[in-house]
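Quick one: structure tokens for this chain, please?
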Amino acid sequence: LSRFHLVFVLRTPVGRELENTVSRILIRSSRENPNIPFLRRYFETIKQLCPSIRCELDPRSAPVKVARKFLARKIAASKRGRLGAPLSVRAAEALRRLCVSSARMRLSPEVEDLDVRNAISIMKASLVTWPGS
């Protein structure tokens, strides 16, 4: 997800998981996901209801402090070669964009602490897919 500077490492399924994956692909009726029309309408509605999101976070709030420490640790670990994922200070911009996206998905006109927690959770999920992370 390049807009958010996230990379999820995908692995090839093996054994029974591979068989189940192949089976699902073989029996589906079409290549197109039946949810795509709904998702398109959903995102169009979000853009209409929330054309802009205000992101003015309080640096003293607990989630912002957690995010700051989390990113600083991960960036430092990446620079020392102790993290499988390449991270730089651009990760802070990625986290901010994730916060805005979370608020938008909730149809909120502004970013709240919940959005910061959601963004951290997504970033952690991305990092855990990297070998050595």
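The two ends are 18 Å apart (CA to CA).
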